Amino acid sequence: MRVARMAVTFILVVWVVSGCGTGPTLQAASAELQKDMQRLETDDVFKNPLKKLRIVERPDRDLPCDKGKFQRVFRATADYERKAPDVDSHLDQAQRLMENTLSQVLHYEMTYDFTQVDWRDGRLLEGRKDVPGITVKVIVVPESPTWRLVAETDCLPPS
User: By the 8 A CB rule, do 148 and 138 touch?
Assistant: First the structure.
């Protein structure tokens, strides 16, 4: 009987302790978002002055989003010089370049919406990092700035 009580106590302690630290925290997601911003700034494509990368909002302050939870936001714009004469080709090239950057350089898992292929007014890209809890959305449009990027953490507890 005594062994059974100790086993139950041990299982309860392990269950409570394992439940306390699960899931991403704002601190971890913010650190990853900060790294993403630095990777984007130093990427071969975007450090080119012709891309006119502009950081609109840095992920340096906590934004309240729920009771006791916060998120961080990173916003940037950049331009892609039109190389193709038609709008569809320009959007396709800009979309592919940003998808490659997000997936290969910044390591986001991209979701693809194939219904956008013929949209002449723009494209919407979305990527996700589940482990720290970050979502990135990029609007690709034919006019300048070509890319409008918003990356934000999930609504997370501070630590």
Answer: yes
Is residue 30's pLDDT more than 80? yes
d(CA 97, CA 110): 13
Determine the pLDDT at residue 110.
96
Quick: pLDDT tens for 68-97: 999 999 999 999 998 878 888 899 899 999
Residue 113 contacts residue 96 (beta carbons within 8 Å): no
Per-residue model confidence (pLDDT) at position 83: 80
Residue 69 contacts residue 156 (beta carbons within 8 Å): yes
Peptide bond connecting 145 to the previous residue in cis, omega within 30 degrees of 0: yes
List the one residue out of 141, 146, 136, 60 whose CA is nearest residue 102: 136
**Residue 103 confidence class, pLDDT cut points 50, 70, 90:** very high
CA distances from 109 to 7, 106, 157 (A): 42, 9, 23
The token pair that represents 29 in the structure block: 């997601």
**pTM reported for the whole predicted model:** 0.81
DSSP annotation string for 56-109 = EE-S-S-EEEETTEEE-EEEEEE-----SSSHHHHHHHHHHHHHHIIIIIS--E
